[in-house]
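name: query_chain
kind: protein
chains: 1
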Amino acid sequence: MTARFRKKASSKPKKGKRMQEPGLDNRHRDENGQIERKRSDAINKNLPNPIPEFSPNATVGYMRNETGKIGLNAIRRAAKNR
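structure:
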């Protein structure tokens, strides 16, 4: 009988497209280089800088709907002007 061995996956990076460095706030970038947005179910009190104009339990999705803005900084500016 002969023992069968699996070939270990190489730990070396593959040649070709490399992932770019992390973006702002160390958020992940996709292959196109675009920074991923915060999930809409993230809660205000768990954000790095919570938005005081909204409840601590408000989700990012709710704040996006209320202000009509997508990014956290844009939501923050729109909330101050409400």
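note: The helical segments are 60-67, 72-80.
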